[in-house]
Amino acid sequence: MKPNAENRFPSYAETKGVKWLLYELFDHLWPWSKQGWLQHKAIQMAGLAFSVAVTVAWALAANGLLGADALIGWWLGWSIYEIVIRLQCKPYIKDGPWWGRRYRPAGRMDMICYVLFKNLLIGALLFITLRNLGLLQMVS
Asked: Does residue 1 fall inside a structural domain?
């Protein structure tokens, strides 16, 4: 999969209001572009299977059936996969504050930092939620 001119920047960049916020949320949570999703069936199926596996891992952790160390391993694996996919499907990052609308092409290190920081925040939120609900087994 090669990035092309169509997916260099998000199509919703000029959208305003709640619609823009929903597009932003979707853009952060879904690593594939429309074209990238349709381009390679093998990568598409592997990604879908991997995302289901990571979701199952979080569900097992929520039920107390998976420890924090295994969950961190799954989350790291998903992050590496997401970096590769985003570099192909959505090769841009936001330049400036999160509420801004300036985008620029992402280099490898830009994408690594973006995905790992984003997933760190999401993972921390999920860990804190599961721990406070008493559903996550912590190693002592």
From this structure: no
State the DSSP H helix or E strand holding residue 93, giving kind and residue range, or none if neither. Answer: strand 92-94
List 105's β-bridge partners, or say none. 92
Query: What's the start-to-end Cα distance of the chain, in Å?
Result: 44
Cβ within 8 Å of residue 84, ≥6 positions away: none
* 97 part of a folded domain: yes
Distance CA 108, CA 134 (A): 38
Domain count, the chain: 1
Report the C-alpha gap between 27 and 74 in whole angstroms: 21
Range of the domain at 123: 14-132
- pLDDT tens per residue across span 32-65: 777 766 666 777 777 788 888 888 888 887 777 7
